[in-house]
Amino acid sequence: MARYAVIGLGKFGWTVATILADNGMEVIAIDKDKDIVDDIISKVTSAICLDSTEEGPLRTLNLHEVDAVILGIGSNIQESILTAALLKKIGVGMIYAKVDNQLHGRILSLIGVQNIIFPEEIVGEQIARNLISKNVLEYISISSGHIVVELVAPREFIGKTLMELALPAKRNVNIIAIRYNYLTVTEAGDNVIQKRLNDMPGAGDVINEGDILILLGPKGNIDKLINDTSTMKDNT
To answer: Where do the domains of the chain lie, and which CATH numbers do they carry?
Structure first.
């Protein structure tokens, strides 16, 4: 299971932390405001109250062991920069940082933060992508020139295995996870549909109607896949 830490639980950090947790990820949520930490503690794996600009307490969390740290401190540039510098110092390998302006982003890049996030740009692009294709639920650019997108399984994918689709070979796009509905029965005998995540899809896994595909690939390849599947749908 992937492990993430989210530092700074404003609207951005809170949203990232809870969505990751809802999708089965292990999430450590961190903020210096105790009330905020108390509010989120039931929604994530663990919630910790501390000042991320203090090296000693930050080191005790062993954040160098997580898959990535999401730095959600945007408005307080000094605090964001100090935290980012400490994260690099203690050996955190992958950092995603929210920034409010180009200067903030440039400084974090100089420190060595790999992934700079401008929330307003993401929201604008997300709206545009949703207008282009109703199948697109999330569209997130990452600084490597790649895109992570949540796409409702196109009709032409349904009933096919990942091997049959061969997206890595044909489109240089990878399906990194599949979110699907799972029908279960409660002790009272009620049918309940649960959302589950297949975070290690195999070549033999079949795409079903209503599945949400989480795709990773170069921006041009992802855009072409979205456009092609949307066009196919519109022409039927």
So the answer is: 3-117 (3.40.50.720), 121-234 (3.30.70.1450)
